[in-house]
């Protein structure tokens, strides 16, 4: 249909010519209604499947055409038309989708940030004009997640579920958001409800077992894992999950046993199984065995992010900074925007050393599981590899670039300011180090052990200002 293209010959142009010539002809009103209906058809074909909870196969180019057609429809009907606000909302939605339709975590990276922000702005305007369009809130939830704005994503997905209470994907997404926000009770409630509705769904079981683990409910987690290992179709994931359970307990022998068992039920080569086996050898100080597994993985797939990161950490510990940086960059490059890593024994990372005489506190710290975005922790590791090379800590241009990247990950802002304090303490800038540390604590940085034992903060640790901050934010610790 040549509705508005090409410019020199199209239906809208014909209607306008007719209306100019025969303004009072009753056919003009009929033609206007027919034209308005036709100008909505592309939008309806794109959004229709979404309203039926089906996949819509469209493109950014098609969304751009739909936005232009809706814009023509608005001009055709005028601001007094009763559907004007709704049509404008739909035009704004299509304009947003012309920028980011079908954008997913495999395509998204920080270079998309400005485009996603533009899309969000259009979606927010659309939602204001048409507050019952579920597809708009779904898109907002996804877009906020790209920018790690999990509180806003939570609100958008909640609104979507209010409008579409039976939508599986929206509930699953909301559960993931609650888990990201560490609101584990809420995440648990959603996944438990979903599991009742879909008792065989392996993805829900895996997410729920992960939430149980993070919510300090190992008993419930093990019951769920045992249910998975009892069924042939989910044995592999059940045994793998049990390996993760023992990894978090720092029980390498048991963890390796279950990862190896999981491999026997995997169809093909289990990259993540061997990666986690290698990690267990690493934290057990069996470095040669750890290297063997990570190199075995990279020989099969040089892009596997976890193996690149783990081997980079070993190279960092061994003082090979150029190779460590290369591997960390590969880990960053091949991690999706939402990929998380679960790190235990964090004292082994970032080339850090800690004060002596605090063995019990160090042991407790080593057992904590740190959930970090893989792109983020890869850049953070690059930072520490770089600044520990003699003379490079003075190259503020390169280091500021790295911090610019780190501050893109809003969920880790408190951590970034902490490491900004460490960096400034290392370069003997006491004033900036204290200011950054205070920002970190205000944002919720809560590791008393790191604060008081990380040797990178030695420059400021004995200052009155530092002691005042510790007293303010950790009044019960002396």
Folded structure, characterized:
The chain has a domain at 1-147. The termini are far apart. Strands 1-2 form a two-stranded antiparallel sheet. By secondary structure, the protein is mostly helical. Helix content is 69%, strand content 2%. It is globular, with a radius of gyration of 27 Å.
Mean pLDDT over all positions = 92
Poorly predicted runs of 5 or more residues: none
Number of strands: 2
Task: Give the fraction of residues assigned to helices.
Answer: 55-70%
Shape: globular
Q: Give the strand order of the largest sheet, numbering strands 1, 2, ... along the chain.
A: 1-2
Task: Give Rg in angstroms.
Answer: 27 Å
Distance between the termini: 76 Å
Order of helices and strands: HHHHHHHHHHHHHHHHHEHEHHHHHHH
The quaternary organization reads as single chain
Main beta sheet:
2 strands, antiparallel
How would the blueprint of this fold be written?
Elements: H1 11-21, H2 27-51, H3 60-77, H4 84-100, H5 113-129, H6 134-146, H7 150-163, H8 168-180, H9 184-197, H10 202-214, H11 218-229, H12 235-248, H13 252-264, H14 271-283, H15 287-300, H16 305-317, H17 321-333, E1 340-343, H18 359-367, E2 370-373, H19 374-387, H20 396-406, H21 413-426, H22 430-442, H23 448-453, H24 458-461, H25 464-473
Antiparallel strand pairs: 1-2
Features:
2% strand; 69% helix; 25 helices; 478 residues; two-stranded antiparallel sheet; single chain; 2 strands; mainly alpha
Short description:
This protein is mainly alpha-helical. 69% of the residues lie in helices and 2% in strands. It has a domain at 1-147.
